[in-house]
Amino acid sequence: MTSTANASAPGGGRAAQPDHLGHVIFITAAAAMGGFLFGYDSSVINGAVVAIRERFDVGSEALAQVIAAALIGCALGAATAGRIADRIGRIRCMQIAAVLFTVSAIGSALPFALWDLAMWRVVGGFGIGMASVIGPAYIAEVSPAAYRGRLASFQQAAIVIGIAVSQLVNWGILNLADGDQRGELAGLEAWQWMLGVMVIPAVLYGLMSFVIPESPRFLISVGRTEQAKEVLREVEGSSVDLDGRVSEIEHAMRSEHKSTFRDLLGGRFGFLPIVWIGIGLSVFQQLVGINVIFYYSSSLWQSVGIDPSSSFLYSFTTSIINIVGTVIAMIFVDRIGRKPLALIGSAGMALSLGLAAWAFSYKEGTGDNITMPDAQGTVALVAAHSFVLFFALSWGVVVWVLLGEMFPNRIRAAALGVAAAAQWIANWVITVTFPSLSDWNLSGAYVIYTAFALLSIPFILKWVPETKGKALEEMG
C-alpha cells in the first residue's frame, strides 16, 4: 500500500491527505443519507403515537406492535442486503432502499386501517435494514484507511441528525396544527404529515445514488478492473499505486466466493467466533435501551408527570445531545481507538441508567395523576440526557465502525447482514417489551438496561478486536 493507505500506521502518525478528500467526503455523505432516513423513519413515529392511538382506538400493546412492525422489516432487509449487494452492487442496493423509503412514507401517511399502517411500516423497515448494512460496508470500501474511522462515523452522524430533524419537523407540524396531533392541515391530520414528509429525503437519497461511484471491491469482483482503478484514483488520490492497490484487493479476494450464510458457520457454537462478536456488539447496543428514548420519549416523560408540551421539548433536546455525542466520537474514534471509546461509553451508560432507575423508583400515582419529587425528576432528566450522550460518543458510532471493518473480506457482506439483523431483532424485543415493563415497574425496566450496560464491559475487554489503523485486507 502506498501514500494514504500507509498513512495510518500503528502509532498514530499524521496521515497524508488524499488529493480528493473533499470528493470522498461527498461520496460518504451521499451514502450516509441512508442513515439519515434510518434515523428519521425510526424516530418520527414518536410524534404520532398519541394520534395513532386515538385514530384507530388501540391499547398500548397493539400500539407497540405497530411501532415495532418496522423492525421486522429491518431484520429482513438487513439479513438479505449483503447477498443483494454482492449480486447487483452497492449502488443498486441503495436505489432499491430509496424506493422502499418513498413508498413507505406515502403509504404510512395515507393508511385506511391499523394493519395497513403496520404493513407500510414493515416496507420502510426493509429499506432501513438494507441501508443499515450497505451504508457501513460501502463507506468502509471507498474510504482511505487513514480516514476510514471518521468517514464510517458519517453513518451514525446521519442517523442522529435524522432523529433530530424528525423531532424538529414533528414540532413544526404540531405548531402549525395548534398543538393537536390530529389537527387538520391541507386535508390531512398533522400526524399524517409527520410520516409523509420523509418522501423528500427518500427521493434525495435515490437521486444522490446516481452520482456516486460503485465500490472498487465490487467492481473488481465482477471484472471491471479499469473502472475500479478510476474509483480508487478518485478516493485515494492521484499518487496512489493503482496497480498495486488492485493487486492487493485481488489477492485478498482471490480465494473468495460470494459470501453466503454457510460461510459464517464453523465455530463451536455454529457461527465463526468473529460472527458471534459482531452479533454481540449489535445486541448489546440495543439491550441498553437506547431506542426507548427515541420511540417512547414523549410517552416516557408524560408517564412520570411531565406535561405533554415539555415532553416534546425533551425529546428534541435528547436528539441534540445525541448529535453532540456523535461529533465527539467522530473526533476521537481514529485517535484513541474503538475499544477505549466503547469502554468509556459502557461505564457512563451504566452509571446514567442506574441513576435513572433510582429516580424512577420515586414515581407516584396512576393514570393522569402521576408525580415525582422535584429532586428525583431532575435526576431522571439529567440521567436520561447523560445516557444518550455516553451512548452517542461510544456505542452509537463504534458498533457501526467495527461492523464495517472487523470481518474478513470473504465473509464481510454476509456477516454484516447477520449482525445487523440481530441488532434489529434486539431492537424489536426492547420496543415491544417496554410498554409492559413500564406498566409493571419503570424503575425495574431501567435496572435491566443497567445490567446490560455493565455486562458489555467484560464483553469488550475479552472479545472485541481493535481495528484502528488496519486495512480491510488485514482483517483475517
From TrEMBL:
Name the UniProt record assigns to this protein: MFS transporter
Pfam families from the UniProt entry: Sugar_tr (PF00083)
Similarity-based family: Belongs to the major facilitator superfamily. Sugar transporter (TC 2.A.1.1) family.
Record domain Major facilitator superfamily (MFS) profile: where: 27-468
High-level lineage: Bacteria, Bacillati, Actinomycetota, Actinomycetes, Kitasatosporales
InterPro entries the record matches: MFS_dom, MFS_sugar_transport-like, MFS_trans_sf, Myo-inositol_Transporter, Sugar/inositol_transpt, Sugar_transporter_CS, XylE-like
Assigned keywords, A-Z: Cell membrane, Membrane, Sugar transport, Transmembrane, Transmembrane helix, Transport
GO molecular function: transmembrane transporter activity
Keyword Membrane carried by entry: yes
Ribosomal protein listed as a keyword: no
